[in-house]
Design a protein that fits this description.
Blueprint lengths: L1 H60 L6 H23 L4 H25 L3 H5 L1 H36 L3 H7 L12 H8 L7
Length: 201
């Protein structure tokens, strides 16, 4: 009787341990899928942004014939950003892919910033209805990208916390749950965002 009790106790402990491990594994999979889904939202918004840029360049081209270099820089930065997005989409959370995407987006941000700054010198272009609409859509899309990036970074942090905390770290290590990288704002853009506005009277 005592041998049967010990055997049942061992089986019971093994079943509890397996169920515990399965629960942790499923939690890690859920967290990983959450940050991948959050990255898919970034993808949607960046694709929308990429679609707007050729129209913006075409509209500006008619007014800014002397700014060919600026326009070409935006087109080249767009191509690089699309390549960065493709690499990141293949492996969301991969540190190299996310760093490449962040750098490419930083170059595109800088190119668009120069284009819009130069456009200020062309009153007819600023007053163009198509240019105003494209600029407004681009601004709206930029806001959506920022919200999507924040949601992604939050999901990555939750996943990384889950995979690093004990006892989940044991299961994460055994099943090769790699750490995920945040999508950071490039330094040039971050400086613009974090800098307090200057007010003069």
């Amino acid at each position: 009787m005592s041998m049967l009790f010990i055997l049942l106790l061992i089986v019971g402990v093994a079943v509890v341990a397996v169920l515990w491990g399965v629960g942790i594994y499923n939690g890690l999979v859920t967290a990983r899928n959450a940050f991948r889904n959050a990255f898919a939202q970034i993808d949607v918004q960046l694709l929308r942004r990429f679609d707007l840029i050729p129209n913006l360049v075409e509209t500006a081209k008619g007014y800014m014939s002397h700014e060919r270099e600026t326009l070409e820089a935006v087109v080249a930065a767009r191509s690089a950003a699309q390549a960065g997005l493709s690499a990141a989409k293949a492996n969301p959370g991969d540190p190299d892919a996310m760093a490449h995407l962040a750098a490419a987006q930083g170059q595109l941000n800088a190119g668009l910033g120069r284009l819009l700054a130069v456009a200020e010198a062309y009153p007819d272009l600023k007053a163009n209805q198509n240019m105003m609409q494209l600029t407004e859509e681009l601004t709206s899309t930029e806001n959506k990208v920022a919200f999507a990036r924040q949601a992604y970074n939050d999901a990555v942090m939750a996943y990384n916390n889950k995979r690093e905390m004990f006892p989940s770290s044991l299961v994460a290590g055994a099943f090769n749950f790699a750490p995920a990288a945040l999508l950071d704002v490039p330094a040039e853009k971050a400086a613009q965002v974090r800098e307090a506005p200057k007010v003069q009277f």
